[in-house]
Specification:
- By secondary structure, this protein is mostly helical.
- It is built from 17 helices and no strands.
- The chain has one domain.
- The N terminus and C terminus are likely disordered.
- InterPro entries: UstE-like.
- This is DUF1295-domain-containing protein.
- Keywords: Membrane, Transmembrane, Transmembrane helix.
């Protein structure tokens, strides 16, 4: 059976008339949700027919295809994590799935004969984002068999096996997969914008360059953190300062990095990571002349995730490193504080008393180095 190339009518993508229409959920998303119900049947009926599969791919709304894949992947991740009792399955995909989604939008547009300037820009910066993050996660051992974010073990010990299973079903497997889809939804909006205005706009140039700059910031933050923990590891093994890194004994004894970008932000990589996806969302807003659009949920969900993840990371760091509480007071969590103070400056009386207080409830079970923490759930999101 042969299939004709799809005509771009309502069953596939909306026939938008204006840029503002591109961000209208009732016109661009809601009418295509029913395609999700038929997609599994279509795929099962034609799984061994490449031409039919291509036809299904091109005649299915690209956002619906992404949603179907995210739901399917949630089930796969849940099964694998429960079999292995390892809850870092989504962690391994964190730097890969957003790239796949944005590449999918670009591929679908190319195959469908639609203008692709905007989605090509998004795809390019997202591929660079993913390559950097994947490499950083790999070199920290994130893809080693059996590796797991150390925090999951702590959470499981606190709440027990049954609540952990519920957490896995609802949050780890499902919501995280949906979040990784949601942060790329602005690309779908930009794909539609290309149908209305195929010209490279000022927003296209500004946001794509801005997102590239944020990837560069993340790269330097990750590299500075890597260098610090390499030096720290050598120092702990030999009790001698590794001169090739240029850290002082006081800095290495402190146990956590407070130099470079880390002197201005406690989590410069986290800050740039969040800004990257917020920028993509704002790009879709500016391009459609809207203050907000329905893709807002992905951006705000990403911010909420980082707030919770960073809170737990800092709680454990403050238990392990006495000076971390001083670091929290002197340096902003994500953004630069007006009264930022270097950790190289002498401690005042109040700060000295702060680190002399015995840490309550300090757990040796979490006594892994910050370098290990970097291979945690957030990948680049973690230090």
């Amino acid at each position: 059976m042969s299939f004709l190339a799809p005509q771009f009518s309502a069953p596939t993508i909306p026939n938008v008339k204006s840029l503002s229409d591109c961000a209208d959920f009732s016109k661009t998303v809601a009418p295509y949700i029913p395609q999700l119900y038929e997609l599994p049947h279509q795929l099962l009926a034609h799984y061994n027919d490449l031409e039919a599969l291509k036809h299904i791919y091109l005649t299915t709304n690209p956002l619906v295809t992404s949603l179907a894949f995210a739901l399917f992947n949630s089930v796969v991740v849940l099964i694998v994590s429960e079999i292995n009792k390892n809850y870092s399955q989504v962690d391994r995909l964190w730097s890969i799935l957003p790239v796949l989604y944005n590449c999918h939008y670009a591929l679908w547009a190319h195959l469908s004969g639609l203008p692709t300037h905007k989605v090509d820009h998004v795809m390019a910066v997202t591929v660079l984002w993913g390559a950097r993050l994947t490499f950083n996660y790999w070199r920290k051992g994130g893809y080693t068999i059996g590796s797991e974010d150390y925090r999951w073990a702590i959470v499981k010990a606190k709440i027990g096996s049954i609540p952990m299973f519920v957490l896995n079903v609802v949050f780890i497997a499902l919501l995280q997969n949906l979040l990784l889809l949601a942060i790329t939804c602005p690309t779908y909006i930009l794909l539609l914008c290309g149908r209305v205005n195929n010209e490279i706009s000022t927003y296209d140039s500004v946001f794509s360059k801005g997102m590239l700059f944020l990837v560069v910031i993340e790269y330097f933050a990750d590299q500075q953190q890597w260098n610090f923990h390499q030096a720290k590891s050598k120092y702990q093994k030999t009790a001698q300062l590794p001169k090739e890194f240029g850290y002082s004994r006081e800095q290495l004894d402190r146990g956590f990095n407070t130099t470079g970008l880390w002197a201005w932000s406690r989590h410069p990589n986290f800050a740039a990571e969040q800004a990257f996806w917020i920028a993509l969302y704002q790009w879709s807003c500016c391009e459609t002349w809207n203050y907000m659009n329905w893709a807002f949920f992905g951006a705000i969900g990403y911010l909420f995730l980082f707030q919770g993840s960073t809170w737990l990371t800092e709680l454990l760091s403050a238990q392990k490193y006495p000076e971390y509480k001083i670091y929290q007071k002197r340096v902003g969590k994500f953004l630069l504080k007006g009264d930022t103070k270097s950790m190289e400056e002498p401690k005042n009386e109040k700060e000295r008393k702060l680190i002399e207080q015995p840490a309550k409830g300090k757990s040796t079970a979490t006594g892994k180095s910050t370098a290990t923490a970097t291979a945690s759930k957030g990948k680049t999101r973690k230090r």
